[in-house]
Request: fold
Amino acid sequence: MLQASDWAIAQYQQYGIAARRENYGVWRGWDRGVSHIDMVSPWVKSLEATQLAFSPATKKPVKAATIVLPDLADSLAFQAWLPNVKGKFVLVSMPQPTGRPDYNWQEFATPASFDKMKKERSAQTDAWRKRISKTGYNARQLAAVLEKAGAAGIVGSNWSNGFGVNKIFDASTKKIPTIDVALEDYALLFRLTESGKAPEISVFVQSKELGEVPTFNTVAEIKGSSKANEYVMLSAHFDSWDGATGATDNGTGTMVMMEAMRILKAVYPNPKRTILVGHWGSEEQGLNGSRAFVEDHPEIVNNLQALFNQDNGTGRVVNIGGSGFAKAKDYLGRWLAAVPSAYKDSIKTSFPGTPGGGGSDHASFVAVGAPAFSLGALNWSYFNYTWHTNRDTYDKIVFDDLRNNAILTAILVYMACEDPERSSNEKADFPPNPRTGEKWPAPVKSKRRGGLDN
Ligand SMILES: [Zn+2]
Reply:
């Protein structure tokens, strides 16, 4: 994260744009290391597997047998069984019955066979959920309980419903490793364990704990002229889950905003209003970077003409909504009118739209009534294939679409800066949310200390 921030600041310097890091808190620092995970018995096979983020490391390869979390009657039976995990790697996920995504079944299976697979899978999924809940714990608590009982490590598999793709989140163990194993490698271990072939695996994970480290946003600025105390913002989070490189979540949003800044500086170096870009930290941990910025910069938030955030992958922007602001149609409509048809004809607008509750960083601004908008992209199989997965990599980037988005963003920012009128932050009248009872999502405090024991 620190290297990425240094890189971005240097890049902005090359564009002639001032950039800075703004610390807002501290977090548990962790560096991913080598994950080397093999089945060593009954035969040898290197496994497609990796430690989860923040997983403890092993000092050397840990070789141990596997054990499957059994289907027990209740929490008492679970407590009685618990000593069996000592010194073993515990398999805690359901083995998937198929590694083919549904769209592939739909294309090739008979309808009867597709139906049968789905029925069996949902019954199996349901039974697995019950198996976990009968232990008396949820999945996170269960990992801690297994650790306390002396397990060698936690082994899961979080399939993302596409070919060869798993979601990689964070571990909740404190001393033993938590790893994710790809669908069929996991299913193989599971079958061998269940059929009494007593597989053994060797787990070597070498991450480093860095202790308490600063957590920060990276901010760049093109100073305004006649209305320097009013702001137009670009926004995209800078952190990502680390099972891959975060190329589309949110490298692509980041590139769009950096490129828009480069264009603006080159062709519009003296904007009326001040242009700011926020490359936020800790979005994945709960929008902490943008929430901290909102708390720390009332002078900006109260004088915000507009903010544009992009955070749903590599695709062309096709959806823009009014975030629940009553008059958004007037000013966003004016700004969009200046966009050439090639960049706007496929955009669907919705006004007044709804105030986003927390999906991405524009929500931190919307919650305090500041006009912030999401540039919604075409999904390019985002949710199955790249979002928080081990396949969110450079090869998935569609550069033509990013170019489209950078041009669109630069034009919207230009129009928002030049507009003789201030945008309105008047809220549309909504019925209260049936779940929360709120008419408008309430601001949530930024978490400024995370992952540390005290
Ligand atoms: Zn994201």
Notes: The longest strand covers residues 208-222. The chain has a mean pLDDT of 97. The pocket of zinc ion is lined by residues 237, 249-250, 283, 311, 360 (CB under 6 Å).
